[in-house]
Design brief:
Elements lengths: L1 E7 L8 H18 L4 E9 L13 H6 L2 E7 L12 H11 L4 E5 L3 E3 L1 H9 L5 E5 L1 E4 L10 H7 L1 E4 L9 H9 L2 H9 L5 E5 H6 L13 H10 L3 E5 L5 E4 L19 H10 L9
Parallel strand pairs: 1-2, 1-4, 2-3, 6-10, 7-11
Antiparallel strand pairs: 4-9, 5-11, 7-8
Helix pairs in contact: 7-9
């Protein structure tokens, strides 16, 4: 049994994300059914005054039931002084607590996964391993009708997001030449929040995602804590691929205006992250 956990908020600049969510759900169902994988999908919806629509008004109960999908509503009562749309860690941890699978795949809601991924899940996945995957950005081509969103993504790849992890790239060789475990952790952290896969016991061991006020994503800290716990990190190579479509327009990271004298949020996040360099747990 594998649990897919994702987070979403339908709000300004992200109104079309319900379409991406429904594509994501159907993509997982298709792959799991093709390889006879027992699965569940847990969608954690962060709720505050910024939501423009709620998922249950956009996706009906029959669709959710048919695709083994549960919506978990998470009220935004956590500290959020910087004013982000949401800090994903809180909702992802709520989904992790609800997950019942032996393995938990925590992802963003705007990705598509190729069928080789599901073959890998069925035949090669192991406990005590933290899995990362090669991710590719694709153009959202609307000029041609495609059979599925996945086919559209596969046909319109713009670039790989993190070539340092691809064993076929010169950047990977550069990373190896550094001979630094620290450099490897940083490389694995880049875009790692888009898809992280590990057995549930180890997710619980590292206490999921670090909950903090500094940044909506905490990929580096998760990767660092995995490393500190001596859990093997593995980047799964091609033919397994993860895709994400480039946005149709500008989709900014929304935050309150910074006051004079305040540090930039990314500086605060980095300083916060350093406190976890030698810690064994997140929260």
């Amino acid at each position: 049994m594998i649990s897919f956990v994702t987070t979403i908020k339908i709000c300004r600049f992200y109104e079309n994300y319900c379409d991406r969510l429904s594509d994501y759900i159907e993509n997982i169902t298709t792959g799991c059914n093709q390889y006879d994988i027992s699965y569940e999908i847990i969608v954690c919806e962060d709720i505050c005054e910024k939501n423009t629509r709620l998922i249950n008004t956009l996706l009906n109960e029959d669709f959710l039931k048919k695709n083994n999908t549960t919506i978990v509503e998470y009220k935004q009562e956590y500290p959020n002084p910087i004013g982000y749309n949401m800090i994903e860690a809180y909702a992802k941890n709520a989904g992790l607590r609800k997950a019942t699978g032996d393995f938990v795949c925590i992802t963003n809601a705007d990705i598509l996964i190729n069928m080789d991924f599901f073959y890998f899940i069925k035949n090669k996945i192991q406990k005590n391993v933290f899995y990362r995957f090669l991710q590719y950005e694709s153009f959202n081509d609307k000029s041609i009708s495609y059979l599925t969103p996945l086919i559209k993504a596969e046909k319109n790849v713009k670039r790989e997001v993190n070539p340092f992890l691809n064993v076929k790239s010169k950047y990977y060789k550069n990373l190896k030449n550094m001979n630094s475990s620290y450099a490897t952790v940083v490389a694995m952290a880049n875009k790692s929040g888009d898809i992280m896969l590990m057995d549930r016991d180890n997710w619980i061991k590292i206490k999921g995602f670090p909950e903090n006020i500094y940044w909506p994503h905490s990929d580096y800290i998760v990767c660092r804590v995995v490393y500190n716990n001596k859990i093997t990190g593995l980047v799964v190579q091609e033919p397994v691929k993860i895709y994400t479509f480039l946005p149709d327009g500008i989709q900014p990271i929304v935050r309150n205006e910074r006051k004079e004298g305040e540090k930039a949020p990314d500086v605060e996040e980095w300083e916060f992250a350093q406190t976890y360099n030698n810690k064994f747990t997140c929260n």
